[in-house]
Design a protein that fits this description.
The complex is a heterotrimer of chains A (515), B (378) and C (159).
Chain A lengths: L17 E5 L3 H13 L3 E5 L2 H10 L4 E4 L8 H6 L5 E5 L4 H10 L3 E4 L4 H26 L1 E4 L5 H11 L3 E7 L2 E8 L2 E6 L5 H8 L6 E6 L4 E4 L5 H23 L7 E3 L1 H7 L3 H13 L2 H7 L4 H14 L2 E3 L17 H10 L6 E8 L5 H11 L4 E4 L2 E9 L2 E9 L5 H7 L3 E9 L6 H14 L4 E6 L5 H11 L8 E3 L5 H24 L1
Helix pairs in contact in A: 1-5, 8-12, 10-11, 13-18
Chain B lengths: L1 E7 L5 H8 L4 E6 L5 H7 L4 E5 L3 H13 L7 E5 L15 E4 L4 H15 L9 E6 L5 H11 L3 E7 L2 E8 L2 E7 L2 E2 H8 L6 E6 L13 H19 L8 E4 L10 H9 L4 E2 H7 L4 H13 L3 E3 H13 L26 E3 L4 E3 L2 E4 L6 H15 L1
Parallel strand pairs in B: 1-2, 1-3, 3-4, 4-5
Antiparallel strand pairs in B: 6-11, 7-8, 7-11, 8-9, 9-10, 12-13, 12-14, 15-16
Helix pairs in contact in B: 5-7, 7-10
Chain C lengths: L1 E9 L2 H7 L6 E5 L2 E9 L2 E9 L6 H8 L4 E7 L3 H5 L3 H9 L5 E6 L2 H5 L3 H6 L1 E4 L2 E6 L6 H11 L5
Parallel strand pairs in C: 1-4, 1-5, 5-6, 6-8
Antiparallel strand pairs in C: 2-3, 3-4, 7-8
The chains are: A alpha/beta (515), B alpha/beta (378), C alpha/beta (159).
């Protein structure tokens, strides 16, 4: 078996390559093994899969040759194929079965009705040859390196000044690109979805990956690209600067953040095709660099779409709660709303706090995000307390506090009690088992804090009337606390609930007037 | 995108090949004449070559051509017709062997597997971040690139059995070694290496003592001057990797010490490059003396000297005086390396031509520019 | 993506700044050349390479750019016009390489002189060559600076 010309080119003179053969027929195994031994390999034959698997724990072979009769229960697929290059062989096998093996990770399927042993040994030899000798030949003949060690910009700059003819092939996992330079001019550039200028600019953004370079000879070239190499280098610099700016603005300067989509913010975003495509990429890759790389758009366009989606609240760096999207870009607190809220504040107070209480499923966080988003404030979460600061006038701040009643919330209320101007209670109607407990808590809070209260019923389902009826049956809160159904993530509902505080406030004024 | 070269031996298969590769990210170059293969490989970086439909003889011819033309780094697959016996192919330097017919999915699976197995990135060794051929990057390029990185690095250059090392501290070249030569002397030898393999290892150096004591800019200046001088002096000498030999049929009464040393080295065949690397004298001095010695016919091309010696031994005494010594020396112009083409028909060098697609804007694009300027005017 | 590349030769840096003050430019330096970027949109960008009087630029760079430049803008003041006419070596080399490219010579004049000009001249400049114009500008003379830029880019080839 002559094509294993040298199995030792890569300096493994003292280390013979090892082949495992999984075969029940000792005769067949022997014939395969003989040929491989002649090429200097060490052979181990196993007639049972269990033995074979056990031995791969001790010694990982350089190649595994397997009779499909030994392959059962998917063990091989899970344990063996990912670890070692595997060849399955048989004198007969249909096309579907062969494709099945390939899809499981088998490197080669040999089907040969005659001279099976020789065919298998030859195929194994070819596989060993290409993984060792051919790879070494390519390593020695081709200039190659990693992007981390030597930037592609340096390569291009050098090529420009030296007027080189080069072919560059760049790879990063499943993504690849090819650039062709003639006398230092980029004459050709391709990535999966892009060509010419856009392709080069995307390639130059790579922060990791590897490349091979080879000079070439040609007397003349035509370049479909108009841009000079200098222009590409300059534009790359600008785009990197822009990328930096985007990351600082949207991701606190994190180099390669992960993004996630925000369900609450998606609706408005999906009408635009570019948005849709970027959102799909975010779902698939999450990682910023990978999103940019696999985007069908040029770098600048991809960044602009990401920026737009961040602005809309449709995406956020993973782990952060974004400001929610606007239902309509025009809706927010009107002047009269501002006036109303201002009136909740004690006279001359510049700071006011509004507590939003509820069980975790009550929609408490969503309501705060809804209000904060329309006012372009961000929501922070600290130890399960959500809070958002909303400037309602230049010098007046309303802070919303979202507190879970399943935790020790009284100390938190105590802390904000001095600036407390109102309290919203959100009750999850889909969870009637908690009504008695909530009724008790609410009653206590109302007794302690003399501020306007309002109750919002969430998760009412289609039958709002029934929900209201259930509420009245189970809740006996002191005073006449207004209650309305709300969809917690809807700004208009949140506003309506806030207005219930006014009603309460008005009633208090009326009562006091009467007195 | 992968670049594939298909040496097509029967155009009847062209349609099937197109079908197999349709919709896939492969760029196929089909060559029907073996003579065109070398030119194709010179102009492209192929990831794979296929002989289709293969016969043993044609496959052997193809492999031999690839080897002799130094394209043996291109993996070759033989795709045989249905009735072809496979056994004769087992001894060939192939990365894969396929017999037609083959289903498209299986075919592409096998191809993917081969390409993955030969990928260079799979073997990046820890710390060896950049390696390649001096044909693409000479010493001056490499010094500049390491300098830009601003890191500690060891640059190793090897060709045949000769190896040299250059050390950098935070991008500054601090020492160089080639055998017993050090510093600038070693670098001036290295600058003339026309081919070889380099490796850079980005690694913290044990000692950062600057043995050269000159800035990179000054070093490069010295090296560039030296290279120009060496290239000028080299004109008229044999190719660096041509073998030369001392002509025993010629003697002189007096030789300079360097001529003596050259003569000693050339007692056995060696390449000009080996001579330059073996002697510690400066390349310029060696080249000058070698030129003189070749003009005096004391040294010549190995093949010619050997022929002369053979002829001399066969010829009778007086006939030796009439043997053509000038045939020993083929006049070779120093071929310009790299990117100039020699037009044999007209006897001139041609400079490469580039035609760039001139930038043309659509009316809409011009309107965008105008509109943008108008907005700025407001 | 399209990149419009313009060479700008200036007598001094202040002149370029004055001429471009109304353009929202981003600046960087590549291979010792100041590059100014003017973005039209994310698919069309103008890059201006600033070449200054008295600075030596690598000839390989000029040779390289020759194939790609869309135009040449020479920015000067009227007091230097004679010097330009005697053509300093650098701008001469540049102009020689770019002989087929649209060229605008932008001469800074006193604002009063510009406003006194005939409308057509202030709009379209003087004829300089088949693909060349002379334009006059001053930062305080209305939109004269923007007109210079419009002139150079309007002369680009239309497909």
């Amino acid at each position: 078996m002559g094509n294993n010309r040298s199995l030792t080119n890569n300096g493994l003179e003292d280390m013979a390559l090892v082949a495992f053969i999984g075969e029940t027929s000792s005769e067949l195994a022997g014939r395969i093994g003989e040929s491989l031994k002649a090429a200097g390999m060490k052979i181990h034959v196993f007639s049972s899969m269990d033995d074979l698997v056990e031995n791969t724990e001790k010694t990982l072979p350089d190649i595994l040759l397997l009779n499909p009769k030994l392959v059962k229960n998917g063990v091989a697929a899970k344990v063996l194929y990912p670890k070692t290059p595997t060849m399955i062989y048989s004198s007969q096998m249909d096309a579907d079965q062969r494709l099945d093996y390939y899809s499981q990770g088998v490197k080669r399927v040999i089907v040969e009705p005659e001279d099976l042993a020789e065919r298998v040994a030859s195929a194994a030899g070819m596989m060993i040859y290409r993984r060792n000798d051919m790879r070494m030949a390519r390593l020695q003949s081709l200039t190659h390196g990693t992007v981390k060690a030597f930037s592609l910009q340096e390569v291009l700059q050098n090529a420009l000044l030296e007027e080189k003819n080069l072919i560059l092939k760049i790879k990063n996992d499943a993504w690849d690109a090819k650039l062709r330079l003639f006398q230092g001019h980029i004459v050709n550039a391709f990535t999966a979805n892009l060509s010419n200028e856009a392709a080069v600019l995307k390639t130059l953004q790579l922060s990791k990956g590897s490349f091979v370079i080879r000079g070439y000879q040609k007397l003349e070239e035509f370049s479909p690209m108009s841009a000079s190499t200098l222009a590409i280098l300059a534009e790359t610099k600008f785009e990197k600067k822009y990328t930096r700016h985007f990351l600082e603005l949207r991701c606190n300067g994190v180099d390669n953040p992960e993004f996630e989509t925000v369900p609450a913010g998606l609706e408005g975003a999906l009408s635009d095709e570019q948005n849709k495509i970027m959102l799909q990429l975010i779902e698939r890759y999450r990682n910023f660099q990978d999103i940019l790389l696999h985007s069908p758009y040029a770098i600048l366009k991809s960044l602009r779409v990401l920026d737009r989606l961040s602005e809309m609240g449709a995406i956020a760096p993973a782990g952060e709660q974004p400001a929610p999207p606007r239902e309509s870009f025009r809706e927010s607190f009107s002047e009269s709303d501002i006036e109303f809220l201002r009136e909740l504040f004690p006279e001359n107070a510049k700071v006011g706090s509004l507590a939003v209480l509820g069980a975790p499923t009550s929609g408490r966080s969503e309501l705060i995000r809804a209000v904060a988003g329309f006012q372009q404030s961000t929501v922070k979460t600290v130890k399960s307390v959500d809070f958002a600061r909303i400037p309602i006038r230049k010098d007046t701040i309303l802070t919303l506090f979202g507190v879970s009643i399943e935790e020790a919330f009284l100390p938190i209320l105590e802390k904000i009690s001095e600036s407390l101007i109102g309290c919203l209670f959100l009750i999850d109607c889909s969870n009637p088992g908690t009504f008695e407990f909530i009724n008790y808590l609410a009653s206590r809070i109302i007794q302690i804090y003399e501020v306007p209260f309002a109750v919002g019923l969430t998760n009412t389902g289609d039958d709002v009337e029934a929900a209201m009826k259930t509420y009245r049956q189970h809740f006996k809160l002191p005073g006449d606390i207004p209650v309305i159904p709300v969809q917690a993530d809807k700004f208009s509902d949140a506003k309506a609930l806030l207005y219930q505080l006014k009603q309460e406030d008005d009633e208090l004024e009326e009562d006091s007037e009467e007195v | 995108m992968r670049d594939l070269l298909i040496y097509l031996l029967d155009t009847e298969y062209a349609e099937h090949i197109r079908y197999l590769f349709s919709g896939e990210s492969y760029k196929i170059t089909i060559i029907e004449n073996l003579e065109d293969v070398v030119e194709a490989c010179q102009q492209e970086l192929f990831d794979l070559a296929m002989v289709w439909p293969a016969s043993v003889e044609k496959t052997v011819n193809f492999l031999t051509l690839m080897e002799t033309s130094l394209f043996n780094y291109v993996p070759v697959i033989a795709v045989t017709p249905e009735d072809e016996a496979l056994a004769p192919y087992y001894k060939l330097q192939l990365v894969e062997l396929m017999k037609l017919p083959v289903e498209k999915v299986e075919f592409l699976n096998i191809l993917d597997s081969v390409l993955l197995d030969v990928e260079t990135e799979s073997t990046v060794v820890e710390g060896m971040n950049w390696q390649g051929s001096l044909e693409e990057y000479n010493l001056i390029d490499l010094i500049q690139m390491v300098e830009t990185g601003g890191r500690d690095a060891e640059l190793t250059i090897t060709e045949n059995d000769i190896s040299a090392s250059v050390f950098f501290h935070q991008g500054q070249l601090i020492s160089a070694r080639l055998d017993s030569l050090q510093g600038l002397d070693a670098l001036k030898k290295l600058i003339f290496w026309p081919r070889g393999h380099f490796q850079t290892k980005l690694t913290e150096l044990g000692s950062s003592k600057d043995e050269i004591g000159t800035s990179n800019a000054d070093i490069l200046m010295v090296l560039m001057e030296s290279l120009v001088k060496q290239e000028q002096l080299y004109q008229g000498l044999p190719e660096p990797f041509d073998e030369i030999l001392r002509n025993p049929l010629e003697t002189v009464e007096e030789m300079t010490p360097l001529q003596h040393r050259i003569s000693e080295c050339c007692q056995r065949p060696l390449t000009v490059w080996e001579l330059l690397m073996t002697l510690t004298d400066s390349n310029e001095d060696i080249m000058l003396e070698l030129k003189i010695m070749m003009q005096m016919e004391l040294i010549g091309y190995r093949s010619e000297v050997e022929k002369l010696v053979r002829d001399h031994e066969e010829q009778s005494g007086i006939e030796k005086f009439f043997s053509s010594i000038s045939s020993m020396f083929k006049k070779k112009d120093a071929a310009e390396e790299g990117y100039y083409f020699y037009d044999e028909m007209n006897g001139e060098y041609l400079t490469p031509k580039l035609e760039v697609n001139p930038l043309k804007l659509h009316r809409r694009e011009l309107e965008k520019i105008t509109k943008k300027l108008e907005e700025l005017a407001e | 993506m399209k990149i419009v590349e313009t060479a700008v030769w200036t007598h001094n840096q202040n002149l370029f700044e004055e001429l471009s003050q109304r353009l929202p430019l981003d600046k960087t330096s590549v291979m010792n050349i100041d590059v100014h970027r003017f973005e039209i949109d994310d698919e069309l960008v103008v890059l201006m390479y600033e070449f200054r009087n008295g600075v030596k630029y690598p000839p390989e760079l000029l040779d390289h750019l020759e194939h790609h430049l869309a135009g040449l803008l020479i920015v000067t003041e009227s007091k230097n016009a004679l010097e330009i006419a005697e053509t300093p070596e650098d701008v001469d080399k540049l102009a020689e390489k770019l002989v087929d490219k649209p060229t605008v010579m932008a001469v800074k004049l006193a604002p009063g002189k510009i406003s006194a000009m005939n409308g057509a001249i202030s709009e379209d400049g003087f004829y300089l060559s088949p693909r060349g114009r002379i334009a006059f500008w001053h930062p305080e003379a209305g939109d004269s600076t923007l007109k210079v830029w419009e002139m150079i880019w309007k002369s680009l080839q239309v497909s």
